[in-house]
Amino acid sequence: MEALKNLVIWDNAAISYNLESVKCVGGKAFGLHELKDLGINVPGWATITATMFEQLCSGDKQMLQLLAKEDIEPKEKAGLIREHLKNITLDGVYQKALAETWNKISDGGKKPIAVRSSAADEDSKVLSFAGQMDSFLNIRNCEAFFNAVRSCWASLFGERAVLYRIQNKIDPWSSQIAVVVQQMVESEISGVIFSANPLTGDTKEMMVSSTWGLGEGLVSGALDADTFILNLNGEIVKSEIAD
């Protein structure tokens, strides 16, 4: 697919539903394309592809040296990689691609955006990387945007993420990551819906966890959520309202 060769893939791009696409845009972005194809109103976004991350790393001598290190503990190695990625130089074609993404998605800086990690090996039937990489909300200027993208890349090598990949026999140093850049929704209420009840495994029930505001408190665990158990018709079977 020609689009997969690009450093940035826009929300109106045609995406084939295969492993190659997932590796390029990551699981989170892949899901957004699926939702849009279903006719659901999804806020505008673009994906900084895993291709950009790969090319940037392969052309950076210090990054290659850090990835090749074998004489230090994984925790220390991951920390060195994170610090390098947070300050990695973005010039030439990468700077141009990121600046274009910022200008288009933020409408020239008029709208706040979210910068969200989208790992290429994110989630499967036996693995879940949810919450292991970072997202950044309400980004309002280009400098903060560039820093947020770097921090998303760096979060691929967070201690929990690296340990999880090691435990599941995935090479922690060869993983890929894409980044979703999306217009913010100034929501009064935010939440997460599970299409099967995660507490019981019942596939005939759905569970919704919700809080006031943008939902960052819910994702981070800082806020207790309201919990609703629904049947397959969307009717509330049980609810628990948090203080």
Task: Give a verbal description of the structure.
It is a single chain. The chain is α+β, with helices and mostly antiparallel strands and 243 residues long. Helices cover 37% and strands 21% of the residues. The chain is built from eight helices and nine strands. The chain has helices at 19-37, 50-58, 61-68, 74-86, 92-105, 142-155, 159-167, 216-220, and strands at 8-10, 45-48, 113-119, 135-139, 177-183, 189-194, 205-212, 226-231, 236-240. The strands form two sheets. Strands 1-2-5-3-4 form a five-stranded antiparallel beta sheet. Strands 6-7-8-9 form a four-stranded antiparallel beta sheet, with no helix packed on it. Strand 8 (226-231) and strand 9 form a beta hairpin. Helix 3 runs antiparallel to helix 4 (74-86) and helix 4 (74-86) runs antiparallel to helix 6. The chain is globular and about 55 Å long.
